[in-house]
Amino acid sequence: MNNSANQESTRRSFLAKLSLWIGGLAAGGSVFAVVRSLIPNVLYEPSKKVKIGTLDFIPEGVTFFKDAKTFVSKHSSGGKTKIHAMSAICTHLGCIVQHTESEESKGGIKDKSSVGFSCACHGSQFTIDGDVVKGPAPEPLPWFAVSISPDDGQLVVDTSRVVEKQKALLVLKSKHYNVRKV
Ligand code: FES
Question: How many Å lie between the centroid of ligand 1 and the Cα of residue 145?
């Protein structure tokens, strides 16, 4: 009799502990769900607007800016500077293309149809303006909007804004940075 009372007491104690554990787990789960619901589902991506430096800092010719994955072309003459930015991401499968000016253009012969950029992954080639010379790339390299930051005068490439080639071009009067879009 005493033995069976002891067993009953142990069983009750076990059941009481078990229900406490289950209750604790349920309460913990509810608290976690409430706390999790207060945290917004936001994916923090890097900004698509990339500052690349002031006009003086950017070299003449074609320069690769790694952060923006963009080639920036700068050409100055007669007190004016023309700037444009073009994606360096191959339109085939996304490799970074290389600036590979042809021998003719290195020698000063400007032929818009000759190769300006090549992709080492599958052999696509593009003109200096990004048009496809040889596939498999299906599309030209897009041009991005370029502007000047009012805060610090740095040029800003907006890789989220693809623009028509002629609208992507900035013409700056070197001394005063007067911007004129053409
Ligand atoms: S990724 Fe450039 S040719 Fe395939």
Answer: 24
CA distance 7 to 171: 92
Question: Could you tell which of 69, 87, 93, 134 is best to mutate to test the pocket of ligand 1, judged by most ligand atoms within 8 Å of the CB?
Answer: 93
Task: Name the residue range of residue 169's domain.
Answer: 49-181
Q: What is the pTM of this model?
A: 0.64
- Residues 72-85 have pLDDT tens digits of 988 888 777 888 89
Which ligand 1 atom sits closest to the C-alpha of 119?
A: 2
CA of 74 to the centre of ligand 1 (A): 26
Say whether both 35 and 96 belong to one domain.
no
Within this chain, do residues 85 and 105 fall inside the same structural domain, yes or no? yes
pLDDT in tens, 138-153: 999 999 988 888 888 8
Task: Quote the ligand 1 centre to 63 CA distance (angstroms).
Answer: 20
DSSP state of 88: -
| Residue 174 CA, ligand 1 centroid: distance in Å | 37
Residues 84 and 168 in one domain: yes
Residues with CB under 6 A from ligand 1: 90, 92-93, 95, 119, 121-124, 136-137
Domain count across the chain: 2
Length of the chain equals: 182
- Tell whether 37 and 57 lie within a shared domain: no
Instruction: Tell me the C-alpha distance between 83 and 44, whole Å.
Output: 30
Same domain (yes/no): 53, 39: no
Could you tell me which of 174, 162, 21 has the C-alpha nearest to residue 84?
162
How many percent of the chain have pLDDT more than 70? 75
